Amino acid sequence: MQNQWDGLITFLGTNDLDKTHEFYNKLLGLELYKDQGLCRIYNVAEGGKIGFCCHMDVVLGDKSPIITLLTPHVDTAYENLKNQGYEVIKEPKINTKFNIYHFFIKDPNSYTVEIQKFLD
User: Fold this and answer.
1) Mean pLDDT value across residues 11-36
2) What's this model's pTM, rounded to 2 decimal places?
3) Torsion of CA 59, 61, 71, 47, to 10 degrees
4) Nearest to 90 by CA among 114, 70, 111, 74
5) Which fold has domain 8-118?
6) Residues in CB range of 31: below 8 A, 6 or more apart
7) Per-residue model confidence (pLDDT) at position 114
8) How far, CA to CA in Å, does 2 sit from each of 43, 46, 110?
9) What are the structural domain ranges in the chain?
10) What are phi and psi for residue 28, nearest 5 degrees?
């Protein structure tokens, strides 16, 4: 079957669209693709999108979900988010098991956000 998909949107719940917008748009620089009132959708890369909706529950587990954003500028992102007062879970480090450089923080919804780059 030929690839017929134009992109991907992952939707997650939020209790505060404005705080979520401040984090993903203003701090991380994700472009707002569409504001649907109850949901805001952001462009990530290459057709990928992430949406946050206030009519959906925020669902958290011990280790999930994890929102991973790829960038060659891991340390810059870390300093920016830390300076804005966001909760750092793990500081930047090399993970030899996966051959990545990454760190983890919590977004305004308490979702775990991983900022990483591949080292290969």
Assistant:
1) 96
2) 0.87
3) -40
4) 114
5) 2,3-Dihydroxybiphenyl 1,2-Dioxygenase; domain 1 (3.10.180)
6) 25, 42, 43
7) 95
8) 24, 18, 38
9) 8-118
10) -90, -15
pLDDT in tens, 76-94: 999 999 999 888 899 999 9
Query: How much is the average pLDDT of 19-46?
Result: 95
Structure tokens at 17: 């669209």
Residues 64 and 94: their CA atoms lie apart, in Å, by 21
1 — pLDDT class (breaks 50, 70, 90):
low
What is the share, in percent, of the chain residues with pLDDT greater than 70? 98
Q: Which residues contact residue 72 at a Cβ distance below 8 angstroms, ignoring those fewer than 6 apart?
A: 117
Q: What are phi and psi of 66, to 5 degrees?
A: -120, 125
**One-letter amino acid for residue 22 of the chain:** E
Question: Which DSSP symbol is given to 25?
Answer: I
Q: Could you identify the residue written with the tokens 């991973």?
A: 68
Output the pLDDT for position 105.
Answer: 94
| Measured distance CA(35)–CA(9) in Å, rounded | 14
